[in-house]
Amino acid sequence: MNFLDAAIDAYVSGNSSSEPMLLRELTRETYLKVLQPRMLSGHLQGRVLSMLTQLIKPKNILEIGTYTGYSAICMAEGLAAGGHIHTIDINEELQPIAEKYLNLSGNKGRITMHIGNAMEIIPSFNIPFDLVFIDADKSNYLNYYNLVFDQLPIGAVIIADNVLWSGKVINQAEIENDSDTAALVTFNTYVTGDKRVENVLFPVRDGLMVIRKTAN
After folding, report:
1. Distances (CA, A) of 166 to 130, 174, 204, 206
2. Cα angle value 91/95/101 (rounded, 5°)
3. Which uninterrupted H or E stretch holds 10?
4. DSSP, residue by residue, 32-87
5. What is the pLDDT along the chain (216 residues), one digit of tens a residue?
6. How many C-beta atoms surround the C-beta of residue 207 within 10 A?
7. Angle, alpha carbons 185-119-62 (nearest 5°)
8. Phi and psi (nearest 5°) for 153?
9. How far is CA 215 from CA 55, 116, 150, 153, 189, in A?
10. Quick count: other Cβ atoms within 10 Å of Cβ 12?
11. If 0-12 CB within 10 Å is exposed, 13-18 middle and 19+ buried, where does residue 63 land?
């Protein structure tokens, strides 16, 4: 589902900073070799993630859902000096492509890729993450949010992708019959009602929920 008219979408992309060549190459290889290549963040969302990260200047980033590494490379553009990204994906088949481009991006040593179940890996970290990007299985969004929340310092930011889910979140039939849609509606409602945060849902691509922790 396109949330913007195709011509407007092209205009928006054309009037945003260009996509680095390496990320174009990563996009091409993802579309050639990987199932469901639309899961890639892509040009516009990638530039949004880069911009937000450069504004936040996080020391430590946690990414839940590496896919082929596009979003991690974008967020690395805003890492503070000496900063580090821990990125988790359950699909080990994606690891060769992701690690290839993470290394080509010049971020070797600044990005660590973990393969496995994020619900099991996250508790092993003892790191005050300044930024968390959630872009994994939709059924666990709220679980990820609750799992990381107490580890985050005041002022930390959580960004959740796909929270509009191709517009299904406002379709009652989809909510009743699709577990992912129902989980995302539950997540969006919970975050909006959480008095410990401020949040804005941006209609960028498939929806980005940007959340700032204001209290414990």
Report:
1. 29, 11, 11, 6
2. 140
3. helix 6-14
4. HHSS-GGGS-HHHHHHHHHHHHHHH--SEEEEE--TTSHHHHHHHTTPPTT-EEEE
5. 556 788 988 899 899 999 999 999 999 999 999 988 888 889 999 999 999 999 999 999 999 999 999 999 999 999 999 999 999 999 999 999 999 999 999 998 999 999 999 999 999 999 999 999 999 999 999 999 999 999 999 999 999 999 999 999 999 999 999 999 999 999 999 999 999 999 999 999 899 999 999 999
6. 20
7. 85
8. -75, 160
9. 21, 31, 10, 9, 18
10. 13
11. buried
The sign of the torsion formed by the CA atoms of 188, 189, 190, 195 equals: positive
> In 3D, which of 145, 149, 82, 66 has the Cα closest to residue 74?
66
Encoded tokens for 105: 């991006």
Helices (H), 57-194: 70-76, 95-104, 118-121, 141-149, 172-177, 179-193
185-192: long-range contacts (C-beta < 8 A, 24 or more apart)? 186/142, 187/141, 187/142, 187/145, 187/160, 187/163, 188/163, 190/142, 190/145, 191/145, 191/160
